[in-house]
Amino acid sequence: MSVLTNILEKSELFVGLGEEDYNALSEVFVHCLYKTDERILSKGDPGDSLYIIADGTVTIHDGDFILANLGPGTFFGEMAFFENSTRTVSVTAETEVVLYFMSREQFNDVFKTRPHILQKMVAAITRRIGMQNQRIISDLTSRNEELDKLVEIRTAELRSTQDQLVQQEKLASLGQLTAGIAHEIKNPLNFVTNFAKLSMELVDEVIESDNPDERKEAGDYLRKNIQKIFEHGSRADSIVKGMLEHTRATSGGGKSPENANMICEQFLKISLEAFKMNNVEFDIAIKVELDHNIPKISLAPLDISKVFLNIFMNAFYSMNERKKTDPEHKPVLEVRSEIIGQSVQFSITDNGIGLPADVIGRVFNPFFTTKPTGKGTGLGLSISNDIIKAHGGTIKCQNISTGGAVFHIELPLDK
Asked: What single DSSP character describes residue 362?
């Protein structure tokens, strides 16, 4: 038995043929040798030969992309060979390689007298294609599993980042709220402190004086001071009680009949005080026209207060930014409420920088902001939109031709 016959018998392409078949094939296969890294076939070459590897390995590749590595007993070049087409890939010797090749003309001569050889070849090629498909499917399944895991990891990371940003937005709102409340409480406490100090001085005068008229005059002043202390202490107490009332509600629930006008007015004042804490020179004219015939409506007051806080703070920011580029600009905020059909509508209008026409439709999208990095999370209006929707209402915004923007908040009246 010749070396070639032995190779043909072990080749998956010709396994199971008779001795005469192997002898006939041995007469048409030609021996050739390639050195390491030597190109055997190039993409675009004529597909006129079929190759069997006797020794060594070859690399099937498309440019730098490696498709397969083949070793002894395997074959290549069969598809272009049978289709009579050009090569779609290249083949390079990975090591020194011994090959046997057969031309299409020589194969045709064998096939004419031995057609069963073609059947064997087609069956072998079909098996190979099936195995390649299984490998591809296995690779794709493995890659899909890897991608699924990667998507899960990235999704978890995004959710974590989103949760952190939402928490950051809540803390920012809480900070603004705290600043405004602190300023609100500070004024009456300052009065309490000052009047208490004066009262202590008057007590000393009463104790030290023997003159009845002086004692009476000091007593009258002392009574007035104590009255002022009581008034301003009561004011601070009412502010704290009001805030505790608002914090009774939890997000998404705890609705109760509330005076929406009162919440709007209270958080307009708190928002302004909070904004002025970091923008002391900010000066603004505020016009408030609230319909006091509006009945109480079912609200989660803490949630609704966040909405007013966000919109007022955005309006102050917008007007302050315009003031920076136009020193003659006079910020004006208009707040209006009215009953429209079966809803209460709050309109908050500012004369700030407005919103670019190409982004106005995205202002309620999560993480979208027109503010510079570090100035906003892009969640304030998104959260506000969710809160209003949870109340069965709507929130919309539009630019004003004279400059600035208006936000319309609609909340349903109780049935």
From this structure: G
User: Which amino acid is it at 214?
Assistant: E
Q: Which residues of the chain have pLDDT under 70?
A: 1, 162-187, 235, 238-253, 367-368, 370, 372-379
Under 8 Å CB-to-CB from 204, ≥6 apart: which residues? Answer: none
Helices (H), 114-211: 115-208
Please state the pTM of the whole predicted model. Answer: 0.48
| pLDDT tens digits, one per residue of 356-384 | 777 777 787 776 676 765 565 566 788 88
Residue with tokens 């909070």: 274
Contact of 214 with 265, CB cutoff 8 Å: no
> Which tokens in the block code for residue 288?
């408030």
3-113: CATH topology: Jelly Rolls (2.60.120)
Where do you find CATH 2.60.120.10 in the chain? 3-113
Reference 46, options 100, 86, 93; nearest CA is: 86
d(CA 2, CA 284): 103
Quote the CA–CA distance of 285 and 307 in Å, as a whole number. 21
Both tokens assigned to 201: 């001085």
Q: How many CB atoms are located within 10 Å of the residue 356 CB?
A: 10
- Alpha-carbon distance of 330 to 404, in angstroms, equals 12
Residue with tokens 């002898």: 23
Residue range 251-412, CATH number: 3.30.565.10
Q: How far does Cα 222 stand from its chain's mean position?
A: 62
Between CA 147 and CA 152, with CA 150 as vertex, the angle to 5 degrees is 110
Give CA–CA dist 413/415, Å, rounded. 6
Q: Where in the chain is the domain with CATH 3.30.565.10?
A: 251-412
End-to-end CA distance of the chain: 101
pLDDT of the residue at 166: 62
Please give the backbone phi and psi of residue 352, each rounded to the nearest 5 degrees, phi first: -85, -145
Q: What was the pLDDT predicted at 241? A: 61
Query: Is-contact 299 202, C-beta < 8 A?
Result: no
Residue 298 has phi, psi (to 5 degrees) of -70, 115
Angle at 274 between CA 264 and CA 336, to 5 degrees: 25
